[in-house]
Specification:
54% helix, Rossmann fold, five-stranded parallel β-sheet, globular, 8% strand, 20 helices, alpha/beta, two-stranded parallel ribbon, single chain
Length: 496
């Protein structure tokens, strides 16, 4: 490297936001760009090969280095001679492995900071997430950088969530603004250094409205958007998040139990429910004041560009369907978590589209009926039988050899059965949130001016009273055929 060369390093440089930053840095021309990522070599897609990145690599204005952030020697080598480091690396958030995230996000970041100190790198710009200030209980409206890091992340959502969606080029532009502010004369640099900044498009929008705009932009028929429009208007059936959360927790617990046996990471998890059911908007006036940041791509332009970049998802590229099923319309309205769970899973199951899942569900429910309900057992007897089955399974599982006919038998770690302090706090927080929601509802009722809420409560309690008069055995006998036959039959008749 020549003495006049000015290098910058972008860790996680092949990530989504980092790619845009890399191209922006190359286009700016102030630095030679070193792309640091985990892969052994860089693989460019055809557009990149013909574009500015491919040209920069061929000309030597950009280079790729393979780096594992957990290895400080590799980090030191990657940062050698750099004037500024943009730390944007992080594991895929959908990978549910705590050790991986901790080793990369904590140890890896310490290695990056240590390397910058050892090598006397002038500027380090670290990219984080607004999730670090999200406590999971309260939505964030126009939050600023004074928000504390919460002791625990957990939530019960309110269903009318606003979001700050930020176009990726604005994220990249904010990094450029930060670098320039830190490189400026003393006063500007001192005000910019050592601070956290929120970066947004400064145009918060309702989550469902955003989803509707994306679907409409992709060319889906208005009938497909009816469920979303009903959500805006407050129509249709809405299932509260506190009803969905226990199901998500059951899915998560099942995964933890069966992951050693090859169960895939589920997408319907408490973390997804938490992220998608609370408002999250942020005030980025501090970034504007100290970094000189303003969005360079307005929301509508960013939305248009995003839709254009996902042309393969357009409606005309998808297999032809007859439109949304009634099961989707009835079950898919309301919050996004309901759509994800009910439309993708429940609607398909009720309509017998996935016969394997439907038959498995029916088998499990029928087994529960004959083993615990049809016999007329008391609750104590039912619990005793359930525990007996669990104990027998665990006993047999514990005495099995490590291998049977060449198949490895994974043992369930004892830690899976402990009820941790962390989980205790979550349960207590969930109960407190549910209680507070109920109290808020009672306060609204006591004011006597919310007739809609009053009628909903009266109707709900009437239905509950009616169902309470029916035995659990009769509910199963009547409910199972209705649930698994009615939607299917109705859908067939509707198509005819």
């Amino acid at each position: 490297m020549g003495g006049e060369e000015r290098w910058c390093v972008v860790t996680g440089g092949r990530g989504f936001a980092a790619r845009h930053l890399v191209e922006m840095l190359i286009r700016d021309g102030m630095f030679l760009v070193r792309i640091a990522d985990l892969g052994p070599s860089i693989k460019l897609d055809p557009a990149e090969e013909k574009g500015i990145l491919g040209e920069a690599i061929q000309s030597g204005h950009a280079q790729y280095v393979s780096v594992d952030l957990r290895d400080k020697s590799q980090v030191l080598e990657a940062c050698q001679g750099a004037e500024v480091v943009f730390h944007m690396a992080a594991p895929d958030s959908s990978i549910n492995i705590y050790e991986l995230h901790h080793s990369v996000n904590v140890k890896g970041t310490k290695n990056v900071i240590g390397a910058c100190v050892d090598l006397k790198v002038k500027r380090l710009i670290y990219t984080s997430s607004p999730s670090v200030v999200f406590d999971g209980v309260h939505g964030i409206i126009n939050g600023d950088e004074s928000l504390p890091y919460p002791a625990k992340h957990f939530l019960i959502g309110n269903g009318k969530n606003m979001y700050d969606f930020t176009y990726v080029e604005n994220v990249a532009h904010a990094h450029i603004c930060a670098e320039r502010a830190l490189a400026s004369e003393a006063t500007v640099a001192e005000r910019a250094a050592g601070e956290a900044y929120f970066v947004t498009n400064m145009e918060p929008i309702k989550f469902w409205e955003f989803v509707s705009l994306v679907l409409e932009g992709l060319g889906y028929e208005r009938s497909c958007l009816k469920a979303f429009e009903n959500s805006f208007a407050g129509q249709g059936i809405k299932i509260p998040v506190f009803v969905i959360m226990p199901i998500a927790r059951l899915v998560e617990w099942t995964y933890k139990l069966l992951a050693p046996y090859g169960m895939k990471v589920p997408q319907f998890t408490p973390s997804r429910v938490r992220l998608l059911s609370c408002s999250r908007t942020f005030n980025c006036s501090k970034a504007n004041d100290r970094l000189g940041y303003t969005p360079i791509v307005p929301f509508q332009d960013g939305l248009r560009r995003t839709i254009e970049s996902y042309s393969h998802l357009r409606a005309e590229c998808q297999p032809k369907k007859d439109g949304p099923s009634k099961a989707f319309i009835y079950l898919g309205r309301g919050r996004v978590v309901c759509l994800l769970l009910l439309h993708v899973a429940v609607a398909d199951m009720l309509l017998w589209r996935n016969k394997k899942e439907t038959l498995t569900t029916v088998f499990i429910l029928v087994s529960i009926y004959f083993n615990f309900i049809a016999s007329g057992y008391t609750i104590i007897t039912m619990v005793s039988k359930l525990l007996l089955v669990a104990f027998v399974f665990l006993f047999i599982h514990s005495i099995l050899p490590k291998k049977i006919l060449g198949y490895t038998i994974e043992k369930i770690p004892v830690s899976k059965f402990y009820f941790s302090q962390e989980m205790s706090n979550e349960v207590a927080l969930s109960m407190a949130s549910s209680w507070n929601s109920a109290v808020n509802g009672l306060i609204s009722l006591s004011k006597g001016n919310d007739w809609t809420l009053f009628l909903k409560v009266v109707l709900s309690l009437s239905i509950l009273s009616f169902l309470g008069a029916i035995s659990l055995q009769n509910l199963f006998v009547i409910g199972l055929p209705v649930v698994f036959v009615a939607f299917f039959v109705y859908e067939k008749k509707r198509k005819k």
